[in-house]
Amino acid sequence: MDFRFTEDQLSIQAIARDFAQKRIVPVAAELDEKGEFPLENIREMGQLGLMGVEVPHEYGGAGMDPIAYVLAMIEIAAADAATATIMSVNNSLFCNGILKHGNEAQKQKFVRAIAQGEAIGAYALTEPQSGSDASAMHTRATKNADGDWVINGKKSWITSGMVARYIILFAITTPGIGAKGVSAFIIDTQLPGFHAGKSEPKLGIRASATCEIEFTDYVCPKENLLGAEGKGFAMGMSLLDAGRIGIASQAVGIGRAAYEATLQWSRDRKAFGHPIGTFQMTQAKIADMKCKLDAATLLTLRAAWAKGEAEKNGGRFGTEASMAKLTASEAAMWIAHQAVQIHGGMGYSKEMPLERYFRDAKITEIYEGTSEIQRIVIARAETGLR
């Protein structure tokens, strides 16, 4: 196996790291406290190719591969998980969704502005009464006399919902047949009938705009149907496979930031006349943190590699994505927990970023498939049983 990265992969990693340290780190704590969307930074990230890492050049993106995307995501997440959330949805769900399932006109119209940071993309699957059971949605889309789609319903926990120009939306088009009656649509939020509802008061990733969105007799042009009618649910689930690689990358970034802060603290902080890093209990925690972080990183890179192979040769990568997401999210939560403990009172203080890492890590175990769902996905793939 060759673990060396290509020059292009290292280049986007370096670009992301430089931007993250110079532009994101100085404002991350303030944006978290205020719950303020980092619009200016997102626009600059678009100009650097970070909002469309895997988008081909002809659609305004950086034209790179899934491993390059993971490397860039880790750097952004290590600086601020909220910014990484926005980046993940733009890349993994919105741009990937249209590139994979859209026609040429849709790619030309909807991808470029998102990939270049001129507009924000979102993904709307979850509803107030349906989270993990996504097929139990109530949002409806019915054809009118002109063949356009009239949409009514509500979605919840939509990342970037308040600021998105375009959204991939899933709705029931044929009631009574479950998942086979779901279709996908590209929503232009500037058309009448769309409304961004209440903002969610979140524990972490507070600088990402998360809200409910509502549709009241919203008319979606027929040409904005994404893929074939009735294929939306399968499409949504396949896009979540890619999304889980993004969240795994985010978790690795959070875990790395917490780990690196702990390493420095263990060298600098003294107790009983010695650096606390000389104490065996601290050393044991650091060793376990390092092992979990590296395991999460390698599984995430393997999932990215599997995605790239699937794109070239066919096949699936869902199991690898679930394994990466499960391992990385639980590693990030554990590492952040231990980091706060090792920092003691300062880890609990907002004067240091540890408490933010701790709050941000938790969501990675929940969104784009909870840890419980990931275990089901992995176990079913291994046993062949449902």
TrEMBL record:
Task: Please state the Enzyme Commission number of this protein.
Answer: 1.3.8.11, 3.13.1.4
Limits of the Acyl-CoA oxidase/dehydrogenase middle domain = 122-217
Q: Show where the Acyl-CoA dehydrogenase/oxidase C-terminal domain sits.
A: 230-381
Return the InterPro entries for the record: Acyl-CoA_DH_CS, Acyl-CoA_Oxase/DH_mid-dom, Acyl-CoA_Oxase/DH_mid-dom_sf, AcylCo_DH-like_C, AcylCo_DH/oxidase_C, AcylCoA_DH/ox_N, AcylCoA_DH/ox_N_sf, AcylCoA_DH/oxidase_NM_dom_sf
Q: Does the keyword RNA-binding apply?
A: no
A matching Pfam family: Acyl-CoA_dh_N
Annotated GO MF terms: acyl-CoA dehydrogenase activity; flavin adenine dinucleotide binding
Task: Provide the protein name.
Answer: 3-sulfinopropanoyl-CoA desulfinase
